[in-house]
Amino acid sequence: MSELPLFPLSGVLLPFGRVPLQIFEQRYLDLVRDCMRTSSPFGVVWIRRGAEVAQRGRAAPELGDYGTCARIVDWDQLPNGLLGITIEGTQRFELIDTHTRANGLVVGQVELQPALTAARLSAEWLPLLDVLRSLETHPHVERMQLRVDYNDAWQVGYSLLQLLPLEESLKYELLGLDSVDALLAQLHALLNQISGAE
After folding, report:
1. Could you tell me which residues are beta bridge partners of residue 23?
2. pLDDT greater than 70 at residue 120
3. Quick one: how far is CA 173 from the chain centroid?
4. Separation between Cα atoms, residue 45 and residue 97, nearest integer Å
5. Of 96, 95, 91, 94, residue with least CA distance to 114
């Protein structure tokens, strides 16, 4: 079991996925400073119910049972004066318990999942790779500077899932899958639904 500072989000971070964040609360500025100084990760956990921003008198948000470790891969001061960071997902973890520090930062007792072993992308899933490559040409995605190993089915699947405009509850559900074939089959079915609806 490990202790991991947590960054609850209304969005889901996936392994190999990249997400830009604006940091303005002091507890998260401290978190980012500490993680950058020590090159250590923090945990991103999806908020099932509740708000990201703490407010006096409001109940703590209800968090998911699992999440993804994040590392900071880029940072900058944004035009609005706030700190902007880009995070990348690494290992998955199970969230066992939480406690809150005096500054409001939530810390989790977590069970880290084994690092994902690269899995060959079989020919039947090549259409998913085509969709990912087309999304990577979008200027917003280009700015994220994704580094995807197109031969690794996990990287293709999670990177595509991160970019698709799907319900966060669905992304959270797919993050919980332990089979890469199940993940890619679900993605394939979802893309068929989306294209059939147009």
Report:
1. 83
2. yes
3. 13
4. 12
5. 91
Least confident of 134-143, 146-155, 180-189: 134-143
Task: Identify the pLDDT of residue 54.
Answer: 52
Q: Is the dihedral of CA 133, 134, 140, 142 positive or negative?
A: positive
Where residue 104 falls (left for φ over 0; alpha for ψ -120 to 50; beta otherwise) is: left
pTM above 0.70, yes or no: yes
Whether the pLDDT of residue 198 is over 80: the answer is no
pLDDT value at residue 193: 85
Taking each helix axis from N to C terminus, what angle separates 168-175 and 153-163, rounded to the nearest 10 degrees?
160
Q: Is the dihedral of CA 136, 139, 141, 145 positive or negative?
A: positive
Q: Residues 185-197: what's their mean pLDDT?
A: 84
Distance (Å, rounded) from C-alpha 21 to C-alpha 32? 11
11 contact partners, CB below 8 Å, separation of at least 6 = 19, 46, 168, 171
Distance CA 133, CA 127 (A): 10
Q: For residue 181, what are its two tokens?
A: 């074939």
CB-CB neighbours of 95 under 10 Å: 19
